[in-house]
Specification:
- With 487 residues, this protein is an alpha+beta fold.
- The chain folds into 2 domains: 35-374, no CATH class; 377-485, Immunoglobulins (Immunoglobulin-like).
- 41% of the residues lie in helices and 20% in strands.
- The protein is built from 17 helices and 18 strands.
- The chain has helices at 44-62, 95-116, 119-124, 126-142, 145-153, 158-183, 189-197, 203-223, 225-231, 234-237, 253-256, 268-273, 284-287, 308-320, 332-337, 341-346, 351-373; strands at residues 2-5, 15-18, 67-68, 71-72, 74-77, 82-85, 88-90, 248-251, 327-330, 377-383, 390-391, 397-407, 413-420, 426-428, 432-435, 440-449, 456-466, 475-485.
- The strands form 6 sheets. Strands 10, 11, 12, 14 and 16 form a 5-stranded antiparallel sheet that branches.
């Protein structure tokens, strides 16, 4: 006997013995999953899912084409080491904001998962969104579930070749457009479009367009649920954020069992007398699931909370004239204690949720405050290592510095450079420095101090003052350095 895996339950696999030749022992370490033919579904949750598809893709595909101040509104210019986000101009020194954004994203994921399970996966995850788009294309070209199954089982002919070929072409176009748009966040998208039309695309731009296009095509068109089940780490650690008051897609076991078909005319008393529950065992909840699980077997890590099974089950309940909610969003405590929706919602404000929310609010407010008070220019001061401290006219001691002034505004700015922290220190020459819009400039600065300063290292502070313009107020930045007095 050789054990093999039964695919009837994605959560609990049972071992089924199959007879083989007693003289040989074969153990299969791999079993491929059967192809999932997800059935189309309509309903309240499906409308929300498509609303999120339209919203996320409108932002992703449309944002690179927006212009602000005669430049692309969202552009990560790696070559110039400048990042344009709407009216903000950020430099590599502003990496702290990226760190803050990642922390906010992670805490938001933890918070929403603790409250309502895998909402991110079911509605806004790029894998889910593009899989939904690719499945819509597939349904419109090849037909719904049964039509696709018949097409796959039929021999190759003109009809099958035409439908399969058309689907692949549309998938590739969507994938390439997605790759093109993604690269357009790093190379100005209008320039990128003209290079594509003139066949003048650079090797790196071509590589990344094809790379992300192929990734979209492969993940959403072919791998689909395999990404969610085997590649995404979130499915593995999500249970650490769940508790008995987390809303998840749940099958009402006490109401639905035992399963079985019955005439639509049967009253509840009649089918209950036969030992039947409200579940008619139609299997539609399995057919609409994009990951191919049976939610009636309980919560499983493959469930992405898309709620397609809720929509289709409610439609079946309507046809049978049964109450809706055989499959619904509920909690473990809600099912065990038969809590109402309002009672479950009152349990939302529990310690875990409050801690996540408090930390998230604190970091978000801190980051927004930091952006509001952020200076519109930055300064980096370095002693010129190629020049030693020296004596100049009238016994003055001079050190040479290089100041990098980074203008983070969209207009040219003038700056005055002063020095303090050491008695008698002065900048020579004392003149304004102009830096073009959204650019940086290295400025050589000579600092002189009068005689009588003791030998050694002394702290000084550069004071850089931006002159006010019609659109930007005056600002000031302090940058510390050291002044060396030779013995």
């Amino acid at each position: 006997m050789v054990p093999t895996r039964d695919k009837t339950s994605p959560l609990m696999r049972r071992v089924i013995p199959i007879a083989v030749d007693d003289s040989a022992s074969v153990a299969s370490l791999y079993q491929s999953d059967a192809k999932i033919y997800a059935r189309g579904v309509s309903g309240w949750f499906n409308y929300w899912r498509w609303a999120m598809v339209f919203a996320t893709q409108a932002v992703f595909y449309g944002l690179p084409w927006l212009s602000i101040n005669d430049r692309q509104a969202m552009l990560f210019d790696l070559a110039s080491r400048r990042f344009y986000i709407l009216n903000l101009v950020l430099y590599p020194q502003d990496l702290i904001y990226l760190t803050g954004l990642l922390i906010i994203s992670a805490l938001s994921l933890f918070l929403f998962t603790a409250i309502a399970g895998r909402l991110w996966c079911g509605y806004t995850c790029p894998q889910t969104v593009y899989t939904e788009i690719f499945m819509w294309v597939e349904r419109n070209i090849e037909g719904d579930r049964m039509a696709r199954m018949r097409l796959d089982q039929s021999p190759w002919g003109f009809n099958k070749l035409a439908r399969k070929g058309a689907k692949q072409v549309v998938w590739m176009v969507i994938g390439l457009w997605t790759g093109f748009t993604f690269v357009g966040y790093f190379t100005p998208i209008r320039q990128l479009a003209s290079e594509v039309l003139s066949f003048g695309l650079g090797p790196w731009e071509l590589f990344w367009v094809l790379f992300y296009g192929f990734a979209t095509y492969g993940n959403a068109g072919w791998m689909r649920e395999q990404v969610c089940k085997y590649m995404c780490p979130y499915a593995r650690f999500q249970s650490a954020m769940f508790d008995r008051d987390t809303l998840t897609v749940t099958y009402d076991l006490s109401r639905g069992e035992g399963r079985g078909s019955r005439p639509r005319s049967d009253t509840p008393d009649q089918y209950h007398a036969k030992g039947l529950g409200d579940c008619i065992d139609c299997g539609l909840c399995v057919q609409v699931c994009p990951t191919g699980i049976d939610i009636r077997n309980g919560l499983q890590y493959e469930c992405i909370s898309c709620s397609a099974c809720i929509d289709v089950c409610d439609s079946v309940m309507d046809k049978m004239h049964y109450p809706r909610g055989l499959i619904r969003n509920s909690t473990e405590n809600g099912m065990a204690q038969h809590l109402s929706q309002s009672q479950m919602l009152r349990r939302v404000l529990r310690p875990r949720v409050l801690v996540y929310a408090a930390v998230l609010c604190a970091i978000t407010v801190g980051m927004l405050w930091s952006l509001v008070v952020r200076a519109n220019f930055k300064v980096d001061a370095q002693r010129d290592r190629g020049s030693v401290a020296r004596l100049v006219g009238q016994g003055m001691t001079e050190n040479v510095y290089r100041l990098q002034i980074m203008n983070a505004t969209e207009q040219a700015q003038s700056y005055l450079i002063r020095v303090g922290g050491l008695e008698g220190a002065q900048v020579a020459p004392d003149a304004a420095v102009t830096v073009e819009a959204a650019s940086s400039r290295w400025v050589p600065v000579r600092v002189q101090v009068p005689p009588g300063i003791s030998a050694g290292s002394h702290s000084i502070v550069f004071v850089i003052v931006s002159q006010a313009t019609a659109s930007t107020p005056a600002g000031q930045v302090l940058e510390k350095s050291v002044f060396l007095v030779p013995r």
